[in-house]
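Thread: FE2/S2 (inorganic) cluster complex, take 2
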Amino acid sequence: MKRLIHLHVNGESREVAVSPDQLLVDVLRDDLALTGTKKGCGTGDCGACTVLLGGRPVPSCLVLAVDVSGQDVLTIEGLATNGVLHPLQQAFIDHWAIQCGFCTPGMILSAVALLGRNPCPSEEEVRQAIAGNLCRCTGYAQIVEAIMCVANAPCAAPRD
Ligand code: FES
Ligand code: FES
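Output below.
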């Protein structure tokens, strides 16, 4: 039997009827049409489904939606403001940190959480913060560079 839950998603109050075994990633994608959150492994290993729950990055494929009723959820769709990309989104573009893009939403949200708690991380701290976000395309160098750029803004000019 479905149960009504309340979520505060990207600053908006949302109500959705979910089954007891429904995962947060599926509620976001299938019920709320927030398909920026990607579902890769479904086992907590790839980080593609990362969202911020109460400001902390979590793999939403490991979270039951019924368990997080009443909480704040931030997805990639909630980052831009009035059509202006979040600095991390812009930096990922400027530094060629996106190839296929499948890892990008989760990667950026992990970086948002990092910079929220530590605005001036070392490169090692950046690498640790995104350790749970796998990227099969970029080799991570541009991703780390993009995050470091925002952390240390104003930064060096982006690559050509
Ligand atoms: S889809 Fe959730 S960690 Fe891979
Ligand atoms: S850009 Fe393709 S997996 Fe990261």
